[in-house]
Amino acid sequence: MTLYYRTKILGTGLYYPQKIVTNDDLARSIDTSDQWITERTGIKKRRISSTKGGEFPTDMALNASLIALKNANLSPNDIDCIIFATFTPDYRLPSCATILQTKLGITNGCAAMDISAACSGFLYALNTANSFIQTGMMKKILIIGSEMLSREVDWSDRGVCILFGDGCGVAVVGRNEDPNDKSEILSTKLGADGTGREFLYQTYGGSVNPITPEIAASKERYLTMNGKEMFKVAVRTLTDISLAALNSAGLKGIEDIDWFVPHQANIRILEATANRLNINPNKVVINIEDYANTSAATIPTAFHQAVSDGRIKRGQLILLSAFGGGLTSASTVLRY
Ligand code: ACO
Questions:
Q1: Contacts for 307 with CB less than 8 Å, ≥ 6 apart
Q2: Of the candidates 119, 85, 116, which has an alpha carbon nearest to the alpha carbon of residue 233?
Q3: Domain with CATH 3.40.47.10 in the chain
Q4: Which residue's CA is minimally distant from atom 38 of ligand 1?
Q5: What is the CA radius of gyration of the chain?
Q6: Has 168 been annotated as catalytic?
């Protein structure tokens, strides 16, 4: 028998920026309408970080982490590792994880690293943490999905800007040593298909194309997306990777799942995926209406909200699934 430690979600937290931008607000500056955005995406509003400070990705992560640590009944110095998923970091260097370590006042020299897997980032972080815990290498890990997408979208591009928002979700995971406690990560599937890179990309800002004064002044530095292709890939990928995770968790089928928490990219993607998976729509946790697509933050924020309002309960079986730029994908089945 292979020996491994079980991983439990000990606590969760979130932070959303104060500023709310509604569809009607957007319709005052671009050629769109609340009706178009609502019908095509399910989004009514989003939160936008202050550019003056206090709501950058590591600031949001600090607020959300303190809530998660409190819920887990832990102190910052109990943490062995910080894994920070984002593709909109505060800086290219140092990593957000090391900045957050300092902001949390952690003095134990814990490991800290960022993960870049776009919207699948939080599940990549969760499953990296799970591996560290299962092998016995670490006991308590802080995982974060925090994004300030408002900086990366062209606010005059109506095909893209309407979809995104800012926010942060956090979970503290740890070794479950109580044999009577059934909480555990049961299965994980991570995947990628680099051939789909042209569906969502940012050409400038890396080593190949640094930001020059001309680029900084132009719209070329922003996110570019092929929405139609992303839509098709999203439904197919979310379905396939969810089924793979369900299969390797050894469940009878989707009917065993109490809650499905998918990446929130478009309500129609979620409905189509739920339909293909044949899961009861009432079991799908959705927060896209109020917060839009916050990339790596959508799953941990939706999860935290459902735990906080009593929908997700200890002992229940949860399916988490994501897809994103890269293209990356990830799915996890866990007993909360
Ligand atoms: N308001 C009004 N009209 C609009 C808007 C807007 N905001 N945006 C586009 N239109 C127009 C288009 O110009 C087009 O007009 P035309 O027919 O005169 O040319 C028409 O509406 C239809 O445009 P489509 O692009 O075909 O609209 P579609 O139904 O595909 O919806 C959308 C676009 C909402 C972007 C959709 O494709 C989508 O959500 N795709 C998935 C995006 C996604 O999953 N992104 C996730 C990325 S990964 C990650 O999460 C980081």
A1: 12, 336
A2: 119
A3: 6-176, 184-335
A4: 227
A5: 19
A6: no
Distance between CA atoms of residues 281 and 53, nearest Å? 39
pLDDT digits (tens, 9 = 90+) for 195-247: 999 999 999 999 999 999 999 999 999 999 999 999 999 999 999 999 999 99
Strand bridging mode 328-335 / 317-324: antiparallel
Q: Which residue has the higher pLDDT, 4 or 81?
A: 81
**pLDDT tens, residue by residue, 38-61:** 999 999 999 999 999 999 999 999
Residue nearest atom 49 of ligand 1, based on CA coordinates: 324
Cis peptide leading into residue 26 (ω within 30°): no
Name the token pair of 26: 């957007």
176 is catalytic: no
User: What is the CATH architecture assignment of 184-335?
Assistant: 3-Layer(aba) Sandwich (3.40)
Backbone phi and psi for residue 214, each to the nearest 5 degrees, phi listed first: -65, -45
Ligand 1 atom at minimum distance from 161 CA? 7
Phi-psi domain of 205 (left: phi exceeds 0; alpha: psi -120 through 50; beta: other)? left
CATH topology of domain 6-176: Peroxisomal Thiolase; Chain A, domain 1 (3.40.47)
Contact 285, 311 (CB under 8 A): yes
Contact 167, 17 (CB under 8 A): yes
With beta carbons less than 8 A apart as the criterion, state whether 141 and 81 touch.
yes
Average confidence (pLDDT) over 13-23: 98
CA atoms within 13 A on the CB side of 5: 20
Q: Which of 81, 96, 110, 119 is catalytic?
A: 119
The DSSP 8-state label assigned to residue 206 in this structure reads S
**Which amino acid does the sequence have at 91?**
Y
Surface-to-core class of residue 216, CB atoms within 10 Å of its CB (0-12 exposed, 13-18 middle, 19+ buried): exposed
